[in-house]
Write a structure and sequence with these properties.
Elements: E1 11-12, H1 22-33, E2 38-42, E3 51-57, E4 60-66, E5 72-76, E6 91-93, E7 97-99, E8 106-108, E9 113-115, E10 134-140, E11 143-147, H2 155-167, H3 171-174, E12 182-191, H4 195-203, H5 208-211, H6 213-218, E13 236-237, E14 266-272, E15 276-281, E16 284-294, E17 297-306, H7 308-312, H8 318-338, E18 352-353, H9 358-371
Helix pairs in contact: 4-8
The structure holds FE2/S2 (inorganic) cluster (FES) and fe (iii) ion.
Fe (iii) ion (FE) binds at residues 201, 207-208, 212, 327, 331.
Length: 377
């Protein structure tokens, strides 16, 4: 059992049940993922009008598409007639409209109800009134962000503001021109762990010396097991012998032209709550999005983004992909190793954080605040 009074240098974690309880997870879905801005899909997946993707945001299925005027639209993926799921596919393309497979109500790309069998005999069915219910959208960094809240919080404050807090200013990320980069590789990880274990892992580098041999070769300052990834706003320097951010430290790909000299040969890692992690290196950007699906399961979609000509020319990106793919697998293994312990009675009251993990305590306070359950003093 954890002693009731901890030494000053240690801080208690959340209790084990916070990582296993389905009721608590539903609360997080409601008060975090269905309330905040959520990074849903890469804009380039909706290249033309009618292209669509469906994603799970909190407990809702959301249909995201591009309208004729090229704007992005997102809707609850629920038919207004009797509630059938409108689109079952994860991705696809329609010509002009979405037709419900149940009774054939048909909605245009703006969500307006444009056809329904025998609609003329049902004059009280308003075509606008019974259109799909929309959710707020925003495009930034080449991704579509959605917000299910009736009154969405300020994107500038909550999303862009958080990036500024991590990096000092917004230019530090804009130099990479992330919206204009192309997806060189996408890997989807099915992680059998609670989403908070994944966030906590990303926030600390106390584990780097133990589980990340390749990463610590490239970034020697991570080898002392102390550097906090969450706070590498200064950028961790590549080792002297290292040529590029690759699995063997060999040369990388073409440097993104906007990256200034003082950001060259450096690695930046930032989290944008609640579900985005971004890594910036001179020749590519690694962009992770988490989709929490159960208390003990999280899907992580990770894109490796390069200059478009690098991808189009078919250059070999595998050595740079392999570095962070290994890091991801090492991290997710650690999270999966931790998940069963969360239901042990030994962990009912939680564990402890060492001083270099103090920002995880701030994350726990933030979660508690969102759920309206402040940490007992
Ligand atoms: Fe969709 Fe009836 S439920 S048309
Ligand atoms: Fe790690």
């Amino acid at each position: 059992m954890i002693p009731t009074s901890l030494p000053d240098s240690l801080i208690a974690t959340l209790p084990g049940s916070s990582y296993t309880d389905p009721g608590g997870f539903a609360q997080e879905q409601e008060h975090i993922f269905e309330t905040m801005w959520f990074c849903a899909v890469r804009s380039s997946e909706l290249a033309t009008p009618g292209a669509f993707r469906t994603v799970e945001v909190g407990r809702e299925s959301i249909l995201i598409t591009r309208a004729r005027d090229n704007s992005v639209r997102a809707f609850f993926n629920v038919c207004r007639h009797r509630g059938a799921r409108l689109c079952a596919e994860e991705a696809g393309e329609v010509k002009r409209a979405f037709q419900c497979p149940y009774h054939a109500w048909t909605y245009d790309l703006n969500g307006k109800l444009v056809a329904a069998p025998n609609l003329t005999k049902m004059p009280d069915v308003g075509r606008t009134e019974f259109g799909l219910v929309g959710v707020a959208t925003r495009e930034w960094l080449g991704y579509v962000w959605v917000c299910l809240a009736e009154n969405p919080p300020s994107f500038e404050e909550d999303v862009i503001g958080e990036v500024i807090t991590r990096l000092g200013d917004v230019e530090a990320i804009e130099h990479y021109g992330i919206g204009d980069l192309a997806v060189g590789r996408r890997i989807v990880y099915d992680v059998r762990a609670n989403w908070k274990l994944i966030v906590e892992n990303f926030m600390e580098c106390y584990h780097c010396a133990t589980i990340h041999p390749e990463l610590t070769e490239v970034l020697p300052e991570f080898a002392d097991g102390y550097a906090a990834q969450y706070y590498v706003g200064h950028g961790a320097e590549f080792g002297e012998e290292v040529q590029g951010f690759t699995v063997d430290g060999s040369e990388g790909l073409d440097r993104i032209p906007g990256v200034p000299d003082d950001q060259d040969r450096r690695y930046y890692a930032i989290t944008v709550k609640p579900q985005v992690f971004i890594n910036l290196v001179p020749d590519h950007v690694i962009f992770h999005r988490m989709y929490p699906v159960a208390a003990d399961r999280t899907i992580v979609e990770c894109d490796w983004l390069y200059l478009p000509h690098v991808v189009e020319s078919g250059k070999d990106v595998s050595r740079s992909v392999e570095l962070f793919d290994r890091v991801n697998r090492q991290d997710f293994d650690a999270c999966e190793r931790t998940q069963p312990g969360m239901s042990s009675r030994m962990y009912a009251e939680g564990g402890v954080l060492v001083p270099s993990e103090h920002h995880i305590a701030a994350f726990h306070d933030w979660v508690n605040e969102r759920l309206g359950t402040p940490r007992p003093q």
